[in-house]
Amino acid sequence: MRFVRVGTLDEPDRLPPDIHIFAASKQPWVVLPAGTPAVPEYYDRATYWPAASLARRKVLLAKIAAASTAPNPG
Questions:
Q1: Residue closest to 42 by CA, chosen among 57, 17, 23
Q2: 2 or 44, greater pLDDT
Q3: In percent, how much of the chain has pLDDT > 90?
Q4: Contact predicate 45/54, CB 8 Å
Q5: Maximum Cα–Cα distance across the chain
Q6: pLDDT at res. 68
Q7: How far is CA 17 from the centre of its chain?
Q8: Distance between CA atoms of 18 and 37, rounded to whole angstroms?
Q9: Residue 11 in this model has a pLDDT that exceeds 90
Q10: What is the DSSP string of the chain?
Q11: Are 39 and 20 contacting, i.e. CB atoms less than 8 angstroms apart?
Q12: Angle CA(49)–CA(43)–CA(24) in degrees, nearest 5?
C-alpha cells in the first residue's frame, strides 16, 4: 500500500481531494471548497474511508503481519 501526494502528479487537478486534513493550521487565505469534508487535524479512517477500502486495508495488513512472522527459509 502506498499513498501518493496528488500535488506531485503531472495532472493533479484530475484527482480532487476526498478530504482536507490539518485544516486548523491552513493559511487564512486558503479557501477550502464546500462539499469536501475538512477536519482540524488528521481524520478517523473508519469514519471517512469507504467500507471496501477498509476491508482491503485489513486484508493487506494481515498479509504483511503474516509475512513478517513467517520463518525465514534461507
A1: 23
A2: 44
A3: 73
A4: yes
A5: 57
A6: 86
A7: 10
A8: 7
A9: yes
A10: -----GGGSS-GGGS--S-B-SGGGS-TT--PPTTS-B-SS---HHHHS-HHHHHHHHHHHHHHHHHHHSPP--
A11: yes
A12: 140
Lookup: cell for 4: 501518493
Alpha carbon 73 to chain centroid distance?
34
Give me the amino acid identity at 65: A
Write out the three cell numbers for 24: 486548523
Does residue 7 register a pLDDT over 90? Answer: no
Residue type, 27: Q
- What's the rounded Cα separation, in Å, for the pair 74 and 72? 6
The number of residues making up the chain comes to 74
The confidence score (pLDDT) of residue 73 equals: 67
Instruction: Determine the Cα–Cα distance for residues 52 and 10; give it in Å rounded to an integer.
Output: 28
